[in-house]
Amino acid sequence: MMTVATPFSAAEPPFFNAGFSRYIGIDYSGAATAGSRLPGLQVFEQSPAEGLPRPVAAPEGRHWSRASIAAWLAGLLEAREPFIAGLDHGFSFPLSWFGAHQLPDWPAFLADFTTHWPCHLPEISVEALRPAAYPAQPRPPGYRRSG
How distant is the alpha carbon of residue 76 from its chain centre? Predict the structure, then answer.
């Protein structure tokens, strides 16, 4: 079980009323495949009326998968419930990346990324797409898009 450290007391939530009904924090892991249930994937949430964040149990099974987290978040979006979610995943690219690969906008980046790094597919892992996993030809799709 993860311990949540906070300088605030449970009686004094450290946020203002921003119109969100849920504040969600996701401890992310890019290991294995999108459907792999991993102990390192954890979800916590807090409402404005609650004190400290509480863990959210995975809907099926003992651990979350990236796919189950995405489905859970999609369900919240479909319910039109106002929430904000933060992931500890440093997913960002410098603007020079967009220029170097002639990507004019975010939709073009997403299309390019999923073409070269199809980790959203159930049988594909990040490890399998890294160039080090392929010492000989042919190179994996992500080879030309690795840093």
Answer: 15
* Amino acid sitting at position 138: P
What is the side-by-side strand order in the sheet with 22-27?
A: 54-55, 42-46, 22-27, 83-87
How far apart, in whole angstroms, are the C-alpha atoms of residue 17 and residue 115? 40
Give 84-117 pLDDT, tens digit per residue: 998 876 666 778 878 888 999 889 988 988 888 8
Distance of CA 129 to the CA centre of its chain: 18
Residues 6 or more apart from 25 whose CB is under 8 A from it?
43, 44, 45, 53, 85, 86, 88
- Give the residue carrying structure tokens 């404005």: 48
The SS3 assignment for 12 reads: coil
For residues 25 and 44, is the Cβ–Cβ distance under 8 A?
yes
| CB-based contact 15:48 (threshold 8 Å) | yes
The three-class DSSP label of residue 17 is: coil
pTM of the complete model beyond 0.90? no
